[in-house]
């Protein structure tokens, strides 16, 4: 939100037990009855909001999806597909815990089964589709895999990695390393170091 909007919200939102606030916008004056209004805001960068603004909201943190919940989403989005040998687990492990990615996986699976005129989908079918889609284990993308490969010869600083990847250091830290670190593929203590899990993943590519 812009600075102007944030200032307006600071004026509009109640700070205590009051239920009515009066706020000006341009030449107009509004009286807001908070018994009648619910304001819901969402952000993935809570640190960008000022403390006074945060304190005017009741904070609710959403939990990440579990593996079983993602499997359920997969099955709902591809009801006509008969999954076998617990292949659903392998599929959701490439979803990065994202229901949107699971929907995309379901769409691809449906198209694959339509083309092959077979509604049964097991490990062999997933292995073929996995390769056709150019996926990597754990749903890693090409930049993340390249990041790991650069660390195979030893620890590197963020600056060195950014130069090797041809990316801004902030992009590397926020958009690439966050997921690698979450998955336990690297450790960060000044320099970036491959974990045993990261080494094994590279060896199995």
Describe the secondary-structure layout:
Layout: H1 3-12, E1 20-25, E2 28-33, H2 51-55, H3 67-77, E3 82-83, H4 87-92, H5 99-116, E4 120-121, H6 123-132, H7 142-150, H8 158-165, H9 169-182, E5 186-189, E6 191-194, H10 196-204
Characterization of the model:
The protein is mainly alpha-helical. The chain has helices at 3-12, 51-55, 67-77, 87-92, 99-116, 123-132, 142-150, 158-165, 169-182, 196-204; strands at 20-25, 28-33, 82-83, 120-121, 186-189, 191-194. The radius of gyration is 24 Å and the shape is flat. β1 (20-25) and β2 (28-33) form a beta hairpin. The strands form three sheets. A two-stranded antiparallel sheet has the order 1-2. The longest helix is centred in the middle third of the chain and has 18 residues, at 99-116.
> Cα distance, first to last residue?
42 Å
Morphology call: flat
- Specify the biggest β-sheet: 2 strands, antiparallel
N-to-C SSE series? HEEHHEHHEHHHHEEH
Radius of gyration: 24 Å
Low-confidence stretches: none
Task: Compute the number of helices.
Answer: 10
Which band does the percent of strand residues land in?
5-15%
According to DSSP, the number of beta strands is 6
Helix content: 40-55%
In which order are the strands of the major sheet placed?
1-2
Return the structural class.
Answer: mainly alpha
Quote the average pLDDT.
93
Would you kindly provide a brief summary of this structure?
This protein is 49% helix and 12% strand.
């Amino acid at each position: 939100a812009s600075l102007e909007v944030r200032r307006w919200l600071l004026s509009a939102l109640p700070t205590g037990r009051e239920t009515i606030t009066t706020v000006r916008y341009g030449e107009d004056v509004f009286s807001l009855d908070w018994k009648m209004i619910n304001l819901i805001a969402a952000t993935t960068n809570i640190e960008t909001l000022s403390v006074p603004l945060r304190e005017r909201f009741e904070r609710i943190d959403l939990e990440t999806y579990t593996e079983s919940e993602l499997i359920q989403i997969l099955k709902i989005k591809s009801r006509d597909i008969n999954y076998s040998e617990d292949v659903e687990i392998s599929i959701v492990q490439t979803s990065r815990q994202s229901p949107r990615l699971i929907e995309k996986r379901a769409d691809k699976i449906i198209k694959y089964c339509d083309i092959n005129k077979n509604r049964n989908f097991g490990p062999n079918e997933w292995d073929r589709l996995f390769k056709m889609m150019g996926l990597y284990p754990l749903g890693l993308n090409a930049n993340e895999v390249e990041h790991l490969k650069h660390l195979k010869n030893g620890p590197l600083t963020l600056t060195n990695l950014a130069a090797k990847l041809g990316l801004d250091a902030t992009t590397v830290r926020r958009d690439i390393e966050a997921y690698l670190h979450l998955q336990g593929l690297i450790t960060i203590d000044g320099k970036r170091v491959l974990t045993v899990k990261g080494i094994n993943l590279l060896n199995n590519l």
